[in-house]
Amino acid sequence: MRFALGGGVTRLADLEQSGSAKIRLPKTHGGAPVAVFLNTAGGLTGGDRLDFDAATGSGTHAILTTQAAERIYRSPDGPAEVASALSAAEDALLEWLPQETILFDRASLTRSLSVDLAPGARLLAVESVVLGRQAMGEDVHALAFRDRWRIRRDGRLVFADEARIDGDATDILAGPATAAGARAFATLVDCREDAGGMIAAARDLVDTLRGEKFRGGVSALPGLLVFRFLADTGHDLRAGLVALLERWRGAALPRTWYC
What we know:
Layout: E1 2-6, E2 9-14, E3 21-24, E4 34-39, E5 49-56, E6 61-66, E7 70-72, E8 80-88, E9 93-97, E10 101-103, E11 107-117, E12 122-131, E13 143-153, E14 156-167, H1 169-172, E15 184-191, H2 199-209, E16 214-221, E17 224-231, H3 234-249
Parallel strand pairs: 1-5, 4-6, 5-8, 6-9, 7-10, 8-11, 9-12, 10-12, 11-13
Antiparallel strand pairs: 1-2, 3-4, 12-15, 13-14, 15-17, 16-17
Helix pairs in contact: 2-3
């Protein structure tokens, strides 16, 4: 999908969809357009692949989210794949705000996020992961998960992040150097040219929200801020992210986050 500026307003310019990957555009009553991705298959397993491709034109502001959490089920036939490619032109604001991905026991997922930013463009992107459903007594002891981020500005790589969990996820994340037993985690990146001047405000905000069940930190790299979060449960992670994103963005999240 592609957004462009028309009459000073961000408007949908192109849209293509196929298979179980669908997009809905709810009314925002004058705010930035919100594109809601949904997977009508209800989840992913081995051999499934979803591709998302979105572009925002010069001076636009668009918000991309999902209808619900994505579920990755037992994958006997290789990994499921989710590949997202985003681009933002000069002075655009692109917000990538999908809800969490839930990984079940024996799931296999390869996920990638690739972003190209023009000078003056800003990206706010979050990805979160939950291991099973604690309320259902689910543990994840066999998992193959790979997550890859690549962000470029004006063709130059500014952020590269790679994470992998291969084996007993509950055991791997129990260590103090990994997640100290947390069952949910998230990464938030705010890629903006004035990022260095925002680090104090970001750390103050994280400090106000940090607690026993939701904890995190933030660091600054040239032209971007990187937030990392851990939580005991998916519910705790979502509650913390909602509170932080509302305050950091200065606006409510898309309505699907509150359903």
